[in-house]
Amino acid sequence: MNPYGRKRYLTLDSVLKSEFGEKVVKVPLNAGFSCPNRGSGGCSYCSSALSGEFAGNPRENLREQFGKTKALYLNKWGETKYITYLQAGSNTYSDVGTLRRVYESCLELPVVGLSAATRADCLGEDVLDLLSEINGKTYLTVELGLQSSNDETAKRINRGHTYAEFLEGYNSLRERNIRVSIHIINGLIGETRENMLATARDVASLRPYEIKIHLMHVIRGALDEKRYLSGELRTLSKEEYINIVCDQLEILPPETCIGRLTGDGDRATLVAPMWSVDKRSVLGGIEHELKLRDSWQGKFFEI
């Protein structure tokens, strides 16, 4: 029997409502951090905005960015609580002094938490110590981009580190009781359905706080645009994607919250697949498929 009520998976929204007693909204910000992988060409799917298309303008300070986005959210949701979301780039990739100034600036805003996206190979001991300190002050989540647990895929997308190195970073955070969100991408170049399910099984075994499942977007100017135009990269159909996501949800731990089930593409730079811009249709398709299966998150999870 579906244990999640109206939804058939555990949403991050419901977890945060339970924690804080009301709706909580993540406000994406851009602190101007780069990425260590840029020097070797960057990940093949990554945009020039370092995955921060919907974050703020890095030429503005964090308070200005926060204020502009909060004004938009007030029109949509009314008064809520907020979490600052350092989205663009690798937000642990700097000296500790700079990181401390940025994190403390985030906590000076009217927020209840901080979420920082980064890479598992940007977690030195001094950075981990700082994150542990911040974790004692606020509701901290560190988001790690795994994308695939397959090391051959990691080479094809030029991720720059192995799955073993990812595990080292992940375990270092968990040893400090820091919440971790793991990002995976369906539809990466050369991946089969079984590769994508294997990644979900590997993530499930880690039992993370949160998982974000993304669709592979072909972005103008990224290496994968050339691969797509040459026929080397095939994007998933909407039906394929929905079925794979449902397969993954069924094997994920029931207590891992779902932060995202499809990625947001910027229409101005998105090359393919264009069906992905209708996010509501994709999410509705996932719900419909789970209902047809009489299934839900964790139905086939094995400890």
The total of helices stands at: 10
What best-fitting shape do the alpha-carbon axes yield?
A: globular
DSSP summary, beta strand count: 9
Give me the secondary-structure category.
alpha/beta
Poorly predicted runs are: none
Largest sheet: 7 strands, parallel
The helix content, as a percent range, equals 25-40%
Please tell me how large the radius of gyration is. Answer: 18 Å
Indicate the mean pLDDT.
93
Strand order of the largest sheet: 1-2-3-4-5-6-8
Query: In percent terms, what proportion of residues is strand?
Result: 15-25%
Helix/strand order: HEHEHEHEHHEHEEHHEEH
The end-to-end span amounts to: 19 Å
Short description:
This protein is α/β, with parallel strands linked by helices and 303 residues long.
Feature tags:
seven-stranded parallel sheet, alpha/beta, 303 residues
List the helices and strands and how they pair.
Elements: H1 12-20, E1 24-29, H2 62-77, E2 81-86, H3 96-107, E3 113-118, H4 125-135, E4 139-147, H5 151-156, H6 163-175, E5 179-186, H7 193-206, E6 210-215, E7 218-219, H8 223-230, H9 238-251, E8 257-260, E9 270-272, H10 279-293
Parallel strand pairs: 1-2, 2-3, 3-4, 4-5, 5-6, 6-8
Antiparallel strand pairs: 7-9
Helix pairs in contact: 3-4, 7-9, 9-10
